[in-house]
Amino acid sequence: MARINLDHIRHAYSPAARAAGDYALKEVHHEWADGGAYALLGPSGCGKTTLLNIISGLINPSDGKILFDGVDVTNLSTQARNIAQVFQFPVVYDTMSVYDNLAFPLRNRHVPEDQVHRRVTEILEMTDLAAMAKKTAQGLTADQKQKISLGRGLVRADVNAILFDEPLTVIDPHMKWVLRSQLKRLHRQSGFTMVYVTHDQTEALTFADKVVVMYDGQIVQIGTPAELFEKPSHTFVGYFIGSPGMNVLPAAVNGATATVGDQSIALPGAPKLSGQSRIELGIRPEFVSLGREGMPISISKVEDIGRQKIIRTRFCDHPMSIVVAEDTDIPSDPKVTFAPQAIGIYADSWRVGMEAK
Amino acid sequence: MNKTWNNKAWFMVIPVLVLVAFSAVIPLMTVVNYSVQDTFGNNEFFWAGTDWFTEILSSDRFWNALARNLIFSMIILAIEVPLGIFIALNMPKKGLGVPVCLVLMALPLLIPWNVVGTIWLVFGRVDIGLLGYTLSALGIEYNFTQNPIDAWITVIVMDVWHWTSLVVLLCYAGLVSIPDAYYQAAKIDGASRWSVFRFIQLPKMKRVLLIAVLLRFMDSFMIYTEPFVVTGGGPGNSTTFLSIDLVKMAVGQFDLGPAAAMSIIYFLIILALSWIFYTVMTVSDAQGE
């Protein structure tokens, strides 16, 4: 268990990298609190796995330092860092039994056999593998194998942190749910620092206290699930979190009024702009209300997703989605209003603060 | 159970049957035919029954050649398999070194067998050969045409030079198919270098290694060309392996009957040993599943 500091970490896979675009991981400067449960969320190729491998020591960063509880571990090997990591695809030692697979990380560290037995038995029960403890790992199914990998990550009682790299990709949906709640429970009991990489927002939001959203090699926002939803600090976060994502409309701002196309929209305050070129207005589909008053839209499609309807519309020639309750009537001459507090103004994709009126 | 009879299927099978008949079955039957008869030429044959088999099986010459051949196969397996694994483990996995190493490794395999023999024949000569000359210049007495030990060492080293590459290439193919995640997981689990070999690399190489051992065993048990070129089976009979002995008997002495009987015994031995090898090496696989 440890506090982990990433001190101006950058990484490029080619040693000749100079321009910012050459870096798989642009500057990351961040502290992971001791005992925190973090989710690292982002699309494929955004640098999540690179960041994880830097923490575990499988990759040495091109620049920057990593500190565990204030001690520089940048040049320490993976073994010396005492980290557990679970990979996306199952890694099992084919020739060993399930029991021996789970005992392997402990035996390598010369843990006394009675403790090994106690820990392995616990993990076998948690992962529901007790019945096949004596079987060779070779003949098992993919999700059983992944449970073994997961178990090997959890079996050590003294690790500094446990890192998960999309561990539930190959597990079937029902088991996913069970394992995720078990991980969550384990986190509460043990107080390990846990970092969970995923591209699935549901997984991230249910697992973590804090979600770290990454995009194009950098961290764009760190926050609780509610913060990410209500105040996305980057248009990417708005688009990536939520289903459907936030509506982002090109806009012009004049004082406390935004103009989209020929429509003027009152803002809760005047955005603090400093001459940025690209201004956008962001509003989540949940905060757009449909009725007979307000700004005109044209409806192109209505998708019924059970308890809600998603209405795909065009607003001033820009696509916009609206989420309404299932029983809402759709007027023949539809108009919309925006909830003022839910509007965000983005300059060059980053959210800007507003001065109160 | 209902069987569907479809005689058109024969058209698919016949070409293969004809090919196998001419390349294997008919020659083998000819050998069987010779092995139970005696002939003095003029196409006159006399029934000999199992006489030739009894004669071969009770002759010291056969048992000595068989013993030499078994010892030879065991020695080269004991050298080539570990050496091949060792080289494969140390070959680069990426970069410019990969094609360079692969080409270097493949070179000995591309050389015709009798050329390999000739190369080593010249290489080992004390008067002009690099190896023979260097050894004698260092004061080591080396003469593979006179000394049986030197002859054996030469034949074994030649075979190791020629065929270790095969084991290397097969093992290398097995090694590069291991995903990086395995090595990363092993690091996380704190596995030692030996554990990585024992629990990751060896299990993944097992199948190709089985093929390598089988191929090397069968080839070395049938070895003919290289020792024939280098030592001619000598000095004395010290490097006369089964196939060399067989050719001496059939072509040199024109004893077709005993030679045919010996061929059949030889064939059955290879068949039986290969089967034993295969069974022993796959039995652990079956237990795992």
Task: Describe the protein in words.
- The complex is a heterodimer of chains A (357) and B (289).
- Chain A has 357 residues and is of the alpha+beta class.
- Chain A folds into two domains: 4-235, Rossmann fold (3-Layer(aba) Sandwich), CATH 3.40.50.300; 244-356, Nucleic acid-binding proteins (OB fold (Dihydrolipoamide Acetyltransferase, E2P)).
- Helices cover 25% and strands 34% of the residues of chain A.
- Chain A has a six-stranded mixed sheet with strand order 6-7-8-3-9-10, sandwiched between helices.
- In chain A, a hairpin with a 2-residue loop joins strand 13 (257-260) and strand 14.
- Chain A starts with a strand and ends with a strand.
- Chain B has a two-stranded antiparallel sheet.
- Chain B has 289 residues and is mainly alpha-helical.
- In chain B, strand 1 and strand 2 form a beta hairpin.
- Chain B is 74% helix and 2% strand.
- Chain B has a single domain, classed as Orthogonal Bundle (MetI-like fold), CATH 1.10.3720.10.
- The mean pLDDT of chain B is 84.
- The A-B interface holds A 53, 56-58, 77-79, 83-85, 87-89, 91, 93-96, 104-105, 108-109, 136, 138-139, 149, 152-153 and B 179, 181-182, 184-185, 187-192, 195, 199-200, 203-204, 287-289.
As a whole number of angstroms, the C-alpha radius of gyration of chain B is: 24 Å
Q: Tell me the number of strands of chain B.
A: 2
Task: State mean pLDDT of chain B (0 to 100 scale).
Answer: 84
Specify the biggest β-sheet of chain A: 6 strands, mixed
**CATH architecture designation of the largest domain in chain A:** 3-Layer(aba) Sandwich
Can you say what the CATH homologous superfamily of the largest domain in chain A is? P-loop containing nucleotide triphosphate hydrolases
Strand fraction of chain B equals under 5%
Concise account of the structure shown:
The complex is a heterodimer of chains A (357) and B (289). By secondary structure, chain A is of the alpha+beta class.
